[in-house]
Fold this protein.
Amino acid sequence: MAESQTPAAAAAQDLTLHTGDDGLARCRWCESPGFAEYRRYHDEEWGFPVADDIRLFEKICLEGFQSGLSWRTILAKRPAFRAAFAGFDFHRVARFGEADVERLLQDAGIVRHRGKIEAAIHNASRALELVAEQGSLAAYFWRYEDTAWTDPHWRAESALSQALSKDLRKRGWKFVGPTTVYAFMQAMGLVNDHAPGCALRERVRAARQAFTPPR
């Protein structure tokens, strides 16, 4: 970087970053005209460590629904998904039956894909099994925290996401391929994939450093 360049000017030249109207450089993917929720999601959620089982279950379900779609689409529909799936309380979702599947297939607020709907319900039962075995979903997922990764934005999956995906599938979970699982890990703070120079990268690093993974 030339000495005369400001950080914002340097960020503007970096294809992984975008300088917003507030002067902050952020991961370029979160700057979507006409959809401020994307920036809020990036600034307030993405990459910050999560230990709440409901949020973890919600996210892995929504990543499954995202398969073949964009996260922007799913994020816009998230309130409707939460209403349709009982707030993603997997204790309740595990009790959903065929009538609920048919109800969800008629819900225009969500992604009406039978396979994904049935997978979310199926995975709720697998989540209950995992909690019975591990104590919590958080205790299980945080075994796969990636503390070594330092070069964000250059991969769609990792050795850890492959290992987690393999174990989940062995346990009977559906729609949990390694790319889907890696996106889950990025969002829930198991890896810090904010781009170097992103205003949130250091905040996420500090939050992860202060976080005590459940065991």
